[in-house]
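Section 5.1 Outputs to date
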Amino acid sequence: MLLCNLDGVITPEATISVFDRGFLYGDSVYEVIRTYRGIPFALPEHLARLRASAAYLYMSVPWSDEYISQEVQRTLAAAPPGEYYIRIVVTRGGDRRIGLLPEPTTQPRLLIVLMAIAPEPTLSEQGIRLTIAKRQRTSTAALDPAAKTGNYLNNILALLEAQQSGFEDALLLNAQGQITEATTSNLWIVRDGVVETPPTTVGILPGITRATLLKIVVDLGMPHREVILTPQDLATASEGFLSSSVRLLMPIRQIDNVVLPSCPGPVTQKLWQELLTVMEKAALAA
């Protein structure tokens, strides 16, 4: 099931001009949110990141968070009951001509897309097989991965190349050979009982689910650290997983020729249950 809200008009299908800068250049920002018990999880945090991404692109977001939230709720109300993937896109808008420099009169556009997802989140028993990509992560000095923009060619190429090699996703290294993240997810591993994840300084998207998990491990008193990781560190991991807003946690079964001892491991399973508890409480409080 698909439902769109383009500039306030809710419709099963939406069209946008071929002159739109999001279409021509990926000149847009976006957020992906999932519902839980019908409630968008961490919507304020996603909208804050949306604005930060837009500011990085010198892009105006003329709508208030309250208005965008109301439009999300209005779109959900028009959809059948169920759980949904929500994509919020702000494109810089359409120019009257093709050119890299935006025209002063160009006006942003707001798109909200709903797609139905499974009614209950489940933790994969099979896990995911990853490879260390040969393609390097975009430099923070070129296009900071902390901004969630519509320009995803770096990630797309890494994902295609991983799948051509027989893997399901890729981990990308920065110019220093440090692990950043997967193509759409943050990375976590467990070594010697310590939960580890790369710091934002290596060039990653500061995930909303990542932030939630960091709070959970603090609340649980779990040994953890944000630490620079290299491919050699993965060989000593007892378990690992990826985190993202829709899949939540995806256990890692294998990274190149290294098969992790547990998939899903006990820490992954514990964090999965705690994350669902946090989401349940948020839904009840909404």
